[in-house]
Every structure is written in structure tokens, then in C-alpha cells.
Amino acid sequence: MHRKHRLIPIVFVIALLGMLATSAWGGAKEIKARMAERLPVITELKHQGLVGENSVGLLEFVGAAKEKADVVEAENKDRKVVYQAIAKKTGTTPELVGQRRAKQIADNAGSGEWLKDESGQWKQKN
């Protein structure tokens, strides 16, 4: 996977959490640290084809193997908190924030990464 593709998710999260940290919303530093700590594991799971990104901005297992399920669950929990905070700040819904983030993730995904479209079909990015 290209180095650029690895940095895009963390840069996005840092920018979002930086924006949120200036508000009254608490916990941004902790979430940022947890997400940064999990990123190498998530990147490896994606590289192995075990985990992909779905159409609502969350991680999902591509097949039956559930390796590192605790990491995936924790990442999705933090993403939901971030999406909720952004939605509140921007006057939209967490679902819409997640869908928009999913499109960004798909656009920046590396070759071979798995993406699940809105119809529920997994596709590997070329």
C-alpha cells in the first residue's frame, strides 16, 4: 500500500479532532490517541483483506474471519462518537457524516482494499 494512502485516514482524523477540540466537546485527545494507536493494526487487517470499509464510514469484516475484532469494534465506536460530534456541530445527522466519510475513504483507498457499496456488495479497489 502506498504511504500516502496510509496517512490520509490519520490526517483526516487529526483535522476533525482538532476542529472538535476547539469546541466544548470533550475526549477528542483521547479518541485521537486511541485511533492513532489502532491505525497500524487496522492498516494490516486491510492489507490482509480481512477488513474493509463500508458505505456508512465504519470498518467491517469482509469474510468469516474475525481477527482482531476488539480493534475493529473499538475503532467503530470511536468513529461513531466523532461522527456524532461533527453532526452536532454542523447541524446534520451522524449517518450523513458517516456516509460522506465513507466516500472520502473510498476515494483514498489503496489498490486492493475492500469497499462495501450502498447495495451491500464488496468490491476490491483496483
Structural topology:
Elements: H1 3-21, H2 28-47, E1 51-53, E2 59-61, H3 69-90, H4 94-108, E3 114-116, E4 122-124
Antiparallel strand pairs: 1-2, 3-4
Helix pairs in contact: 1-2, 2-3, 3-4
Q: Specify the helix fraction band.
A: 55-70%
Query: Quaternary state, please?
Result: single chain
Number of E strands? 4
Number of helices: 4
User: Overall mean pLDDT score?
Assistant: 87
Q: Give the spatial strand order of the biggest sheet.
A: 1-2
Distance between the termini: 12 Å
Uncertain ranges? none
Structural class: mainly alpha
Q: Write down the secondary-structure element order.
A: HHEEHHEE
Shape: globular
Can you walk through the features of this model?
The chain contains 4 helices and 4 strands. With 126 residues, it is mainly alpha-helical. The protein has one domain (3-124). Strands 1-2 form a two-stranded antiparallel ribbon. A two-stranded antiparallel sheet has the order 3-4. Strand 3 and strand 4 (122-124) form a beta hairpin. The N and C termini lie close together (12 Å). The model has no long low-confidence stretch (mean pLDDT 87).
Notable features of this structure?
126 residues, mainly alpha, two-stranded antiparallel ribbon, 4 helices, 4 strands, globular
